[in-house]
Write a structure and sequence with these properties.
Chain B: This is 2-oxoisovalerate dehydrogenase subunit beta, mitochondrial. The complex is a heterodimer of chains A (386) and B (389). Chain A is α/β, with parallel strands linked by helices. Helix content of chain A is 42%, strand content 13%. In chain B, the strands form 3 sheets. Chain B has a 7-stranded mixed β-sheet, sandwiched between helices. Chain B has a 5-stranded mixed β-sheet with strand order 9-11-10-13-14, sandwiched between helices.
Chain lengths: 386, 389
């Protein structure tokens, strides 16, 4: 009987009918949820931090696993496409996005710098749209005009090329949240390199002064392009750099830790106490962008060590399998599905036509009558509409 | 690092122009687009450069020469400066290991880490800091990693550096400051790795803005900028870092600032450009000679501010027609200043309206770059219309 059930579930999963296979597989006595211990966060100007234990339900666990695998496969695919010269421009790749998304609501706002592909996905866009934007086609989320660094979605403000410039923007979005009174928060992300930009400190000051519901998040992957944090920052305790803003340091490789910390931070902001700073300690395996091999400023052993000990997908997988929340086969099935989805999306992204040439002049201004954009010489003009 | 820098710039062969030329000349950009998206081979076609670098003859008056590309010429100039001037320091993002474009390779090992050092990611801080060093009399050579990132430092350059001497009545100055920055389109840079901001700085009296077209010019002009007693901004065309190779003298030498160079003499039309675009208009001049029998005078402006009005006007008086070309957007681009001054000085000598072939009035595009840049076909077209005016 059991063998027949397993066989049937295998057949059904091949046909990719998720609910059916999950129902069948659920009969194999999985736990519904499990409690895990997570690392305590370092605190700055805070009495209490996020809880040290958390409950992960089976459904959530599978959802996070799928999202993380999708983001990772999507980035690897983008890497491949870039090497095939189908993606042009710069391509900066990486994984805290799923944990952050789990801690907030879809009505909250998020803004980040150029490492935006993962966030675009977790904020609701499909892999097709993201890959099509990378290849510069009209199916892309910015209609092919932005590329890797400029992707946007509902309540997701990009995707910004100049690092540090997005932080005052995030503070402004937080002001709008407070003004509208809808209990929303804004997550403003930046990296360890950008943490040394002056405008970030201007944003800290304004956010603290006016008690804006802004969660400043520093994704510390220990290298600003090729410069390690010790050589760039006088203080590498990024969570304390807000000085008068309370902060916490979170293990960015553990999705549950990130989720709890984000929930804590969001609750803090929503209660009107003002901004809060989170430092996510994370790592990137590849180089800064596609043109950086990533090994000239750090050793391969270091990368290998992090990959084998603290890989976020592996951590989640181990936890789920060890506490009987899912089986190894089930997770493998998800891998296969994800791979197929990415392949399809890559197909679409390569085959989709580029935006038409007329669109060169569109969306410069917002104007009532379309005006003419002067071209390379006085006889070339493009229409600009918005 | 070599591989990565190479990938960054994607060296292109100069020769494979055939299919590109056919499609562009026939005026069928749309057809080109569709076939380009169809297959990998066509995608290769799209990466052909829009110019061919034309090296100058080997210079004989400066001693022994060596084959160098643009970034090596810059390294050589910096090496000479640091050797000659004990107060000279080089700083910027990632300059210690050699820089993202390898312009400072080997300098830290040779001169020590207190003379060649990295700064954190803070352009405003870098330039402000550089002004401070220069005011005390030391020579500061700051690097801004891409010209697109120079805007946080705009206030420091325009309000502090440019006005220091003027506002202190010559009591203080930051003349020993030089800011170097990779500049211009590179084929795949998109919005924030391709800008040409020389026009923003041309509007600011007190600083000098210089753009070289080749390794030989770059070394001479950079050494002049460093030794010049005014704050200078030196924009290096990043697409030429590897693509431009010629014989460059090993010893230091200077090329005077604020002097334009007449590269080729002619009698019918004057063509003016700077940086990468000089190579484009040289080709246009060759095409015009061959197809229309028109003799063009080609001028490399070299220094944008203060620019050499005399050379350009003398040329226009001779030919009667002027075409100025640059990658930056048309409105407010430096061609508008040249155009305006020339029509003031040489109005009665002009046979046709002055033609400006520039980038579109849009942000530098991602996927539309091949259509945005003022390539030789657009320049040729403008030239033809001017001849037939």
């Amino acid at each position: 009987m059991r063998k027949m059930l397993a066989a049937v579930s295998r057949v059904l999963s091949v046909v990719a009918q998720k609910p059916a296979s999950r129902v069948l597989v659920a009969s194999r006595h999985f736990a519904n949820d499990a409690t895990f211990e997570i690392k305590k966060c370092d605190l700055h100007r805070l009495e209490e931090g996020p809880p040290v234990t958390t409950v992960l339900t089976r459904e959530d666990g599978l959802k996070y696993y799928r999202m993380m695998q999708t983001v990772r496969r999507m980035e690897l695919k983008a890497d491949q496409l870039y090497k095939q010269k189908i993606i042009r421009g710069f391509c900066h790749l990486e994984a805290c996005c799923v944990g952050l998304e789990a801690g907030i609501n879809p009505t909250d706002h998020l803004i980040t710098a150029y490492r935006a592909h993962g966030f675009t996905f977790t904020r609701g866009l499909s892999v097709r749209e993201i890959l099509a934007e990378l290849t510069g086609r009209r199916g892309g989320c910015a209609k092919g005009k932005g590329g890797s660094m400029h992707m946007y979605a509902k309540n997701f403000y990009g995707g910004n090329g100049i690092v540090g410039a997005q932080v005052p923007l995030g503070a402004g979005i937080a002001l709008a949240c407070k003004y509208n009174g809808k209990d929303e928060v804004c997550l403003t992300l930046y990296g360890d390199g950008a943490a040394n930009q002056g405008q970030i400190f201007e944003a800290y000051n304004m956010a603290a002064l006016w008690k804006l519901p802004c969660i400043f998040i520093c994704e510390n992957n220990r290298y600003g392009m090729g410069t390690s944090v010790e050589r760039a920052a006088a203080s590498t305790d990024y969570y304390k750099r807000g000085d008068f803003i309370p902060g916490l340091r979170v293990d960015g490789m553990d999705i549950l830790c990130v989720r709890e910390a984000t929930k804590f931070a969001a609750a803090y902001c929503r209660s009107g106490k003002g901004p809060i700073l989170m430092e996510l300690q994370t790592y990137r395996y590849h180089g800064h962008s596609m043109s950086d091999p990533g090994v000239s400023y750090r050793t391969r052993e270091e990368i290998q060590e992090v990959r084998s000990k603290s890989d976020p997908i592996m951590l989640l997988k181990d936890r789920m399998v060890n506490s009987n929340l899912a089986s190894v086969e089930e997770l493998k099935e998800i891998d296969v599905e994800v791979r197929k989805e990415i392949e399809d999306a890559a197909q679409f992204a390569t085959a989709d036509p580029e935006p038409p040439l007329e669109e060169l002049g569109y969306h410069i201004y917002c104007n009532d009558p379309p005006f003419e954009v002067r071209g390379a010489n006085q006889w070339i003009k493009f229409k600009s509409i918005s | 690092m070599a591989a990565s820098a190479g990938r960054l710039l994607r060296l292109r062969a100069a020769g494979a122009e055939g299919p590109w030329r056919r499609l562009r000349g026939a005026g069928m950009p749309r057809g080109f687009l569709q076939s380009a998206s169809a297959c990998g081979a066509a995608a290769q076609r799209r990466q052909v450069a829009h110019f061919t670098f034309q090296p100058d003859a080997e210079p004989v008056e400066y001693g022994q020469t060596q084959k160098m590309n643009l970034f090596q010429a810059v390294t050589s100039a910096l090496d000479n400066s640091l050797a000659k001037d004990p107060t000279a320091v080089i700083f910027g993002e990632d300059v210690a290991f050699g820089g993202v474009f390898r312009c400072t390779v080997g300098l830290r090992d040779k001169y020590g880490k207190d003379r060649v050092f990295n700064t954190p990611l803070c352009e405003q801080g870098i330039v402000g800091f550089g002004i401070g060093i220069a005011v005390t009399g030391a020579t500061a050579i700051a690097e801004i990693q891409f010209a697109d990132y120079i805007f946080p430092a705009f206030d420091q350059i325009v309000n502090e550096a440019a006005k220091y001497r003027y506002r202190s009545g010559d009591l203080f100055n930051c003349g020993s400051l030089t800011i170097r920055s990779p500049w211009g389109c590179v084929g795949h840079g998109a919005l924030y790795h391709s800008q040409s901001p020389e026009a923003f700085f041309a509007h600011c009296p007190g600083i000098k803005v210089v753009v070289p077209r080749s390794p030989f010019q770059a070394k001479g002009l950079l050494l002049s900028c460093i030794e010049d007693k005014n704050p200078c901004i030196f924009f290096e065309p990043k697409i030429l870092y590897r693509a431009a190779v010629e014989q460059v003298p090993v010893e230091p030498y200077n090329i005077p600032l604020s002097q334009a160079e007449v590269i080729q003499e002619g009698s019918d039309v004057t063509l003016v450009a700077w940086g990468t675009q000089v190579h484009v208009i040289r080709e246009v001049a060759a095409m015009a000679q061959e197809k229309l029998g028109v003799s063009c005078e080609v001028i490399d402006l070299r220094t944008i501010l203060p620019w050499d009005v005399d050379t350009v006007c003398k040329s226009v008086i001779k030919t009667g027609r002027l075409l100025v070309s640059h990658e930056a957007p048309l409105t407010g681009g430096f061609a508008s200043e040249i155009s305006s001054t020339v029509q003031e000085e040489c109005f009665l000598n002009l046979e046709a309206p002055i033609s400006r072939v520039c980038g579109y009035d849009t942000p530098f595009p991602h996927i539309f770059e091949p259509f945005y840049i003022p390539d030789k076909w657009k320049c040729y077209d403008a030239l033809r219309k001017m001849i037939n005016y």
